[in-house]
Each structure stands twice: as structure tokens, then as C-alpha cells.
Write a structure and sequence with these properties.
- By secondary structure, the protein is of the alpha/beta class.
- It has 14 helices and 14 strands.
- It has helices at residues 7-16, 73-85, 94-106, 119-134, 162-165, 194-204, 229-239, 260-264, 290-293, 307-319, 322-345, 374-378, 381-393, 413-429, and strands at residues 40-44, 47-50, 55-58, 112-116, 138-142, 186-189, 208-213, 243-247, 270-273, 284-288, 350-355, 358-363, 396-397, 404-406.
């Protein structure tokens, strides 16, 4: 395997640190053990190009938004037309009505929608709606699930060790940042455990305003819902009059046009969307039942429903038809099948799964994890680091910290062929 020269990225990272905190706009732009991030100059289709002129097949998708790939012509045309008309008015636009009607049409839980600019903000608004509607204060969230970086959201989504999490029967709250206030109204529970939740709701259901969950835990070592879990959660929240909130910031528009709730066939009370919704432009939406959405908490924000992002969302959604989803699913399945066959050939223990335009990979296990805590003892994270390092050196962009990846409408069979050749060489070497 050849190694890319990324000397300019190293040089620019050093320069950036003189004025930019950490030298990056987000701490997630490189792995903690990585010396410097790759500075990207431009992207086209499924490919990215760095300052040194290296070309990469991209499976990061900008952390998810780039479902159409890079420099999609129809998306660019829509955004350029809106730029010419004006980018921000502090006033509603006709296009916002069009987008809202479309979202109500395609999202199962959506009777009404409102807007923010990021997933963090959308989830903060959803929490307030749950409290306003129920008159209760506690929010239940699960270990390993990430819902944003606010004080109440960034709780027990990560930990340095199992010890830090405390006993599974009564998990401790792990705060995610210095300066973060105690999350007194947040209850933390293990995921995928209906028996645990039934007992918890029996004791504390009268306090729980809402339950926040990803349908697939994708912001830690990926964990998939066990059979009947989401259905059971839906039943419990109805029984105890708690608001069920699906965080679809990742799964929204990735698993289907109607999101994970269409894919899994479970309809929540509220759901939040961002990332892939606008193909690379900042927008988020809260969608839900009218009686909850209109319960006293009116959305505010300077850039809510910004016409530039609305134009991008309309142009993105217009291209996400059944043919596009079927094609992404076919490519994902081809890649996942190929990786699993190569792993068997070279006797590499891993779990690799694909769902439409999302695919995941973990070393050291052959079956899916059932719990966030399993990732500490069962997953071979060192081998994933080796994979990530090799991917950058050989022309591939993967997630710097965990095996969660994206297919886009711009990927093609040649990308899959080249990727499988890389995995063949990597597995053969190890």
C-alpha cells in the first residue's frame, strides 16, 4: 500500500493553532491520537482533494450531510439562485411553506414542523416541548446516545472507562465537558433493556416528560435496536404519558425519505432532523404531533428557516427518490458483503452491516453489540485506529474515531471496487 504525502496539512495545522482554538473548528476533525487533520481543498462527487493534491474516496460525508456527494449541480443551482435573490430576510418565505408541506407529507410523525439551524438546537427545543406538554421535568436518555453539546444533552454519551459509568443498575451521569452544569433533570439508563425500563417507569414514570433515543446508536460504537425494543419503548411512553422523541439527526433521510421511523415502522411523538436534510447546508427541523408542537414553546432564532438552507433542503429532497435509495442500498450491500467475505478469507474477526446509506464496522466481534458498555471490552479499537491510519495513507476518508460511514448518491461501482481492493490489502497485511 502506498502512503500519501500530507506535508501541507501538517504545516497549515501548525499555522491554524496560532489563532484558532485547537487549530480546528471542531474537535472531531481529527482523532485524539492523530498528529494533525487533513486540510481539504475541494470535493467533487464521492471524492475529496487535499492541499497536497491527494485524492480520497470519501465515506465520512461531512459527518452525514453530504448525501448527494460534493458539488451536486442541482443543489448548487438552487443555492446560487437563492443567493442572487437574497440570503437572509428575518421574514418567512414562500419556499418555507413548500418545505414544511413536504416534510409533513413524508415524515410519519409530522403534523406540524418548526425549524432551528443545528441538531443540538432542535433537540433542545424538543426537550422543552416535552416538558411543556406533559408538565413534567425529567428527561430520560440512554448511555452512549449523543443528542448535542448543550448541558442537558451531553450526558453519558461517552466515558473514559466502564468504571466511570458506575453500576449498570443505577448508571452515573457522566458530564461531557468542563464548565458543564449538573444535569439534575436528566435520567440515564442502559439502552436495549426493556425489563430495566419497565421497572424504571413503574417507579418514576410520573416524573418523565420525555424519552430521547436514537433508533440506531451511531454516535458511539454502533449498537442496533434488539427485536421489539423500539416497539416496547413506544408502548411504555404511551402508557405513562411521556413524549417519545426520536433523534433522527443521523438517520433522517439516510435510511429512507421518512427517516428511521419509516424504516423501522415505529412512529414517535416528536422527531428531530438535520445533517442530510439540506445536503451540506445548516438547517434542522422538529416534527411532531400538533398538540405537542403547539404547546406554548414558540421557536426563536435568527437563522431559523433561512431561505438559503431552505432552498438547499428542497433541492436535496427533490433528488431523493426511490431509485436513488435503491442504488445507495445496492452499493452499500455490495461493499458490506465484500468486506465480510474478505474478513472471512483472511480470518479477521469483525462485524460489518449496512442499512441503505449507512454502514458500520467493528473489529473484535462477529455479532452486533447489545449495549454501550459492551464496546469497552469487546471491540478492538486499536485495529480500527490501524484501519483509519491506513485509509488516509491510501486515499480513503473514514470516521476518525469509530466505524460509522456513509454512502452517497455520488458513489459508484468503481468506488466500491477500489475500496474492496484497499480492504483486501489491509486484511492481508494484518
Amino acid at each position: 500500500m502506498r502512503k500519501y504525502n500530507t506535508a501541507l496539512s501538517r504545516e497549515k495545522f501548525k499555522e491554524a493553532q496560532s489563532s484558532l482554538v485547537g487549530g480546528m473548528a471542531s474537535a472531531l476533525h481529527k482523532a485524539s491520537w492523530q498528529e494533525y487533520p487533513i486540510f481539504i481543498k475541494n470535493g467533487k462527487g464521492s471524492r475529496l482533494y487535499d492541499l497536497d493534491g491527494n485524492e480520497y474516496i470519501d465515506y465520512m460525508g461531512g459527518f452525514g450531510p453530504m448525501i448527494l456527494g460534493y458539488s451536486n449541480q442541482a443543489l448548487m443551482d438552487a443555492v446560487i439562485d437563492q443567493i442572487k435573490a437574497g440570503t437572509h430576510f428575518a421574514s418567512p418565505s414562500e419556499s418555507l411553506i413548500e418545505l414544511s408541506n413536504k416534510l409533513v407529507e413524508i415524515i410519519p410523525c409530522a403534523e406540524k414542523v418548526c425549524y432551528q439551524s443545528t441538531g443540538t438546537e432542535a433537540n433542545m427545543h424538543a426537550i422543552r416541548l416535552a416538558r411543556a406538554y406533559t408538565g413534567k421535568n425529567k428527561i430520560l436518555k440512554f448511555e452512549g446516545h449523543y443528542h448535542g453539546w448543550s448541558d442537558e444533552e451531553k450526558v453519558s454519551n461517552a466515558a473514559e472507562s466502564l468504571t466511570e459509568l458506575g453500576p449498570r443498575s443505577n448508571p452515573w451521569k457522566v458530564l461531557g465537558a468542563h464548565g458543564q452544569r449538573p444535569a439534575d433533570d436528566v435520567i440515564v439508563a442502559p439502552w436495549n433493556d426493556l425489563e430495566y425500563l419497565e421497572d424504571l417507569f413503574e417507579r418514576r414514570g410520573h416524573e418523565i416528560a420525555g424519552v430521547f433515543t436514537e433508533q440506531i446508536m451511531l454516535n458511539a460504537e454502533p449498537v442496533y435496536p434488539q427485536k421489539g425494543f423500539l416497539e416496547g419503548l413506544r408502548k411504555l411512553t404511551k402508557q405513562y404519558k411521556s413524549v417519545l422523541i426520536f433523534d433522527e439527526v443521523i438517520t433522517g433521510f439516510r435510511l429512507s425519505l421518512g427517516g428511521g421511523q419509516s424504516y423501522f415502522g415505529i412512529t414517535p411523538d416528536i422527531s428531530t432532523f438535520a445533517k442530510a436534510m439540506a445536503g451540506g447546508y445548516p438547517i434542522s427541523v422538529i416534527a411532531g404531533k400538533e398538540e405537542i408542537m403547539t404547546e406554548g414553546e414558540a421557536p426563536v432564532g435568527t437563522f431559523n428557516g433561512n431561505p438559503l438552507s431552505v432552498a438547499a433542503a428542497l433541492a436535496t429532497i427533490a433528488q431523493l427518490n426511490n431509485d436513488v435509495y435503491n442504488r445507495m442500498s445496492r452499493l452499500t450491500n455490495s461493499l458490506v458483503s465484500g468486506i465480510n467475505q474478505l474478513a472471512e478469507k483472511y480470518e479477521v474477526e469483525l462485524f460489518c452491516r449496512g442499512d441503505v446509506s449507512i454502514w458500520t464496522l467493528q473489529f473484535g466481534i462477529s455479532k452486533p453489540l447489545t449495549d454501550f458498555r459492551d464496546g469497552f471490552s469487546k471491540v478492538n479499537k486499536k485495529m480500527y485506529q490501524d484501519l483509519y491510519r491506513a485509509s488516509l495513507e491510501n486515499g480513503f476518508i473514514l470516521h476518525p474515531n469509530r466505524g460509522r460511514f456513509y454512502m452517497s448518491a455520488a458513489h459508484d461501482e468503481k468506488d466500491i471496487e477500489d475500496t474492496l481492493l484497499f480492504f483486501n490489502d489491509f486484511f492481508k497485511k494484518i
